[in-house]
Design goal:
This protein has 178 residues and is of the alpha+beta class. The protein has helices spanning 20-29, 53-68, 79-88, 166-177; strands at 2-7, 33-38, 43-47, 74-78, 99-106, 127-131, 134-140, 161-165. Strand 6 (127-131) and strand 7 (134-140) form a beta hairpin. Helix 3 (79-88) packs across helix 4. The protein starts with a strand and ends with a helix.
Amino acid sequence: MMYVALLRGINVGGKNKVDMKLLKSTFERVGMTSVVTYINSGNIVFATDHPSKTGISEILEEAIETDFGLNIKVLVRSLDDITTVVQALPDTWKNDQQMKSDVLFLWEEEDDESVLEKLVINPEVDTVKYVPGAILWSVEKKHYKKSGMNKIIGTKLYKQVTVRNVNTTRKIYDLMQK
């Protein structure tokens, strides 16, 4: 089965540096196959017969700690999970000069529609949707300072998500289908 591992907090601001070629080798060392990395922010598509996403996460977190000395949270999503997210994304949402559109992938502890109640949402500028496994959030860049999107950083909830922009999310989906 195809999966993606979304690593939280690597190669951000010069911290937790991880070389993607070495990370690919780590995944292969612990039995993952068809391993493909995408950009430097910790997106790894792979195949495995392991039956549990939680079990896969534990294997990968331990391997990353062993090989890199880093305690990194790893969120694993199946192709079906990513399909659900991508199909819920409006085609008009982009991450470009005019628009900022992100997918906040949720750890299981927060994966419920009630998570929206923990967010500061400005209905005048923010468009926010919950789908199983993620929060979809979009705002025109000219309104970003009015958006609640930037108020999530530093919150307890922020530690329970890993964020990818919609362009990256769609590319991950494409890679998983190949």
